[in-house]
Each structure stands twice: as C-alpha cells, then as structure tokens.
Design a protein that fits this description.
By secondary structure, the protein is of the alpha+beta class. It folds into two domains: 127 residues, no CATH class; 117 residues, Dna Ligase, domain 1 (2-Layer Sandwich). It has six helices and 16 strands. Strand 7 and strand 8 form a beta hairpin. It starts with a helix and ends in an 11-residue tail after the last helix.
C-alpha cells in the first residue's frame, strides 16, 4: 500500500520540482537580461561620450537625445569632413576672417554697406571665386559721388552688351551692381516683375570707369591681358590646391618646347566668353613666361570645362574645331602636367 501510494504521488512531486526548477531558471534569465541591459546602457553612454568628443573636434553636431535618432556619418563622410578641415587649414596663412591680402592690400569676402566696392577675380590661387577691393577716405567719397551721378536709365532687354568685352570687374554700391565693359561702359540686367519683362542698363561714364581701372592697375596690378599676346612661351608653371590634390599645394613647371608650343597654340587662339564662369577656377593657376620676360597668370577651370580666366575675363581655350562639336576637355590640357594629373578625376 505504501509503495502504491508513493508511486501515485511521485509524479506530483516531480511536477512540483520541475516547476520550482523552471522558476529558478526564469529568475536567472531575467537577472542576466537586466545585467546585459545595464551593461549596454553603460556602453552606450561611453560611446555617446566618445562620439561627442570626436564630433566636437570635427565641428559636426550629432544629437544624443533619447527622443531623436543619432546618425553618425559613415567612413566616407568622415573623410570628406576631414578634407574640408584640411582645406580650411591650407588657407590659414593667406586668408583672414575678412578675406585675403593681395599685393599687400586687403581684399574682402563681402561688400561693405554704404561704400563703393569693386568685385574682382584675381588670377591667383585663392579660397573664393570673387573678392571686393574697397577704397577708403577721399577716394571712397569721390567714387560715391561719381556713382550717385550715374545716369541710370533702364531700357527693355535687347542684348546691348553684344560686341563688347568685359573688363574683369564690377562696381557695387548698395543694391547696384554694374559690370564694367571696355570703353567706359557699365552694364546690368534685371527682371521687372511688375511688367513681367527684362530690363537693362547700359551706361557710359569714362570718368568713373577710368578712375577705377587706373586704381586697380596701380594698386593691385589687376589689368586685362589679350591671349593673342601669348607668344614664345619659355616655361609654364601650374599650381593646384583643391580637392583633387587633397588641398595640398602641388606645382609643376614645364620647359619642354614641344609641349610649350601646344600650350601656346591653345591659349593664343582662345575665344572670349561673356559672363565669366564658376568652374572652380580659383583652385588652379597657370603662369606662362614668355621670351620677352612678360608673364601672365590664368585661372584654370577644375571641372571638365575648358575655360580660363585672366583677372576676371574668361576664355575658351579649346582647339577651334572642337568649340561647336565638343569632344575636347580640360583633362586634355592637364595631361601635360603628369606629376599632378594623377590627382585629377
């Protein structure tokens, strides 16, 4: 009887022990999970601290707020960010908060209110496309008086600039911005939203034009140069400092007469481009020295465009047979500078 009772009750005791063991195991699992969660929180906290330190150094803000997603950049974006930092550092020696020094004269990144500012694009390596030369004292007062006396009469848009050539600078005063053209002309085009039409100014004022042109030539040596005068090149020096050189200054000088003759044919026959360009020309500068001792500097486009600027006046230097049908690009020029060319796209 005792044996039978034991046999009958044993499964019950076994079930009870199984339940007890199961509860014990569940308790351990919950404890382990709690410890993992705590460790993970601690790791996340440490990770966020490191991320915060790194992003502060890299000048990039990442949010670590629990209510927002944290999306740090991947490795390629970090490299790009580092490249931007490198670019900024590369110009520290020549650029201050306001602009750059050029011929020992400050050029500014922005216009100054209530002052006549002359926008220029000097043919040198420079961080920005354009800068402003701002005369001071008596000269500034005289320019303001001359600018205020301009006969500003707007007329319907009729391509009146055609047949004229830019001088490489613009007169800026208040909301007025006039492009200077050879012959003492100033030009501007704008949209008249009231009449839904385009209007333009074309003003000739040789006194104001000559005042500014002479000032730029005497103070900054900022003057026009005709590419047709590029003859008998004895050396060609290319300097580059841009994203294709990792923002390091790279330079190469060519004296091979066969290559120099090719370059002479390109630039000597370059054709004028109206309206300038924004092709990264500020990041590459070509200095050509000729047999008579004269030199000319050209700001070279860094994309596929085949344009170059000479103190703010732009030219297409492609061989004439390619100007209409295409098929010739800036890489065809840069290939001659084989010590720099591998860094190009």
């Amino acid at each position: 009887m005792k044996k039978e009772i034991y046999i009958i009750t044993k499964p019950v005791l076994t079930q009870i022990w199984n339940i007890i063991i199961l509860l014990f195991l569940c308790g351990n699992i919950v404890g382990c999970a709690s410890n993992d969660t705590a460790n993970q929180k601690q790791e996340n906290t440490m990770s966020n601290t490191v991320l915060s330190d790194n992003t502060t150094k890299g000048k990039t803000n990442y949010t670590t707020d629990e209510n927002q997603n944290s999306n740090p950049t991947d490795e390629s974006e970090t490299s790009l960010e580092a490249a931007v930092d490198t670019e900024n550092a590369a110009w520290n020696e020549t650029q201050n908060e306001e602009g750059i020094m050029y011929n020992n004269i400050p050029l500014y990144c922005a216009e100054k209110e209530k002052q006549v500012c002359i926008e220029i694009q000097p043919s040198v390596l420079r961080p920005s496309i354009s800068y402003y030369f701002i005369p001071t004292e008596e000269v500034q007062e005289r320019l303001i008086a001359l600018t205020c006396n301009l006969n500003l009469e707007a007329k319907p848009f009729d391509y009146r600039w055609q047949g004229m050539k830019e001088s490489g600078w613009k007169l800026c005063y208040q909301d007025l911005k006039l492009t200077a053209f050879d012959g003492g002309y100033f030009y501007s085009c704008w949209e008249d939203f009231e009449t839904n039409s385009s209007m333009e100014y074309l003003i000739q004022d040789t006194a104001l034009y000559d005042e500014i042109q002479n000032m730029l030539e005497n103070s900054l040596n900022y003057q026009p140069f005709d590419p047709a005068d590029i003859k008998n090149i004895t050396s060609a020096k290319l300097e580059m400092q841009n994203m294709y050189t990792d923002y390091e200054l790279r330079s190469q000088t060519i004296t091979d007469q066969k290559i120099l003759q090719i370059l002479e044919d390109l630039f000597n026959n370059a054709s004028y481009i109206y309206g300038g360009a924004e092709c990264g020309n500020q990041g590459a500068c070509l200095e050509l020295t000729m047999a008579d001792g004269k030199t000319v500097k050209l700001s070279m486009a860094m994309d596929s465009c085949t344009n170059c600027g000479i103190n703010g006046v732009y030219y297409d230097y492609r061989p004439a047979q390619y100007r209409k049908k295409g098929g010739w690009y800036s890489t065809d020029f840069f290939q001659y500078f084989d010590q720099i060319q591998p860094f190009l796209p």
